[in-house]
Write a structure and sequence with these properties.
With 320 residues, this protein is of the alpha/beta class. It has helices at 14-27, 59-68, 82-87, 89-109, 144-163, 189-199, 218-230, 251-259, 273-279, 288-294, 302-319; strands at 6-9, 32-36, 51-53, 73-76, 114-116, 119-120, 167-168, 170-172, 174-176, 202-205, 213-217, 242-243, 247-249, 266-269.
Amino acid sequence: MKKEKVLIMGACGQIGVELTLALRKLYGADNVIASDIREAQHPLLEGTGPYYTLNAMDAAATLALIKKENITQVYLLAALLSATGEKDPKRAWDINMQSLLQVLDIAVQEKLTKVYWPSSIAVFGTTTPKQDTPQKTIIEPRTVYGISKYAGELWCQYYNQRWGLDVRSLRYPGLISWKSEPGGGTTDYAVEIYHEALKHGKYTSFLSEGTYLPMMYMDDAIRATIELMEAPEEKIKSRMAYNLSAMSFSPKEIAEAIRKHIPGFQIDYAPDFRQQIADGWPQSIDDSAARADWGWKHEFDLEKMTADMLLHLKEQLQTV
């Protein structure tokens, strides 16, 4: 059996940091190569294993690194997210699409065993059913991020059908973590609110109080990613991207959960351009295909996540 050696592109991002650490525990530190366009490593990655500065748009450098390190799997996480992407749509499209197509071509050329590329609930739009959004449904995204993710899903499916490339993907909901900073997404309020609750006891939400969005604690997202990639190939029946879900809540409900731990916490609302993006997304997701095909099951709900977030962030603030 071929020994797996993994390259993570975009390792300093919100998902990348924790996924790198988790994969190093699974495969061993020297078998998981972290890379990002930033020269400085993320503090959480320092000293935990190999790190390279790599621009995901540089196909030649990517190929050279894959050859040098005898890479067998690539996790391509580099991307411009929803809110950031709307500030420069053409750049977001170029980064999100070019990096993917380059990796897919290299994967076929070098006969890599697997490729992971994340999708998002941003693929859905105003015409998509908002409640229990199905795995297969109307998909008409309204942001360049969503457009690029849907196009990417189709490319992943195409490379699997034409060249047999084992490429896998998840449609992440909003992700919440205490270990890494928000990355410019529309759901980032659900990370910022915990920080502000502990630091200042108040928060101004850029989404309205009743805006429901699908969310997931990062621990569940990392576990789902690894479980998907570790699942036997015959269990992977969707070659676009699997719906993934854990919970749905509004800014008002997350504030109420925080008040159980910080009674004086105050929240007000000042919706900005991100409100329009959120209004085009589902309020809840049907991920029964992932649960049936490869056994996905979430562990964290809003109450459990809130307790864990506040516990770890308190410890983090005390050490600063």
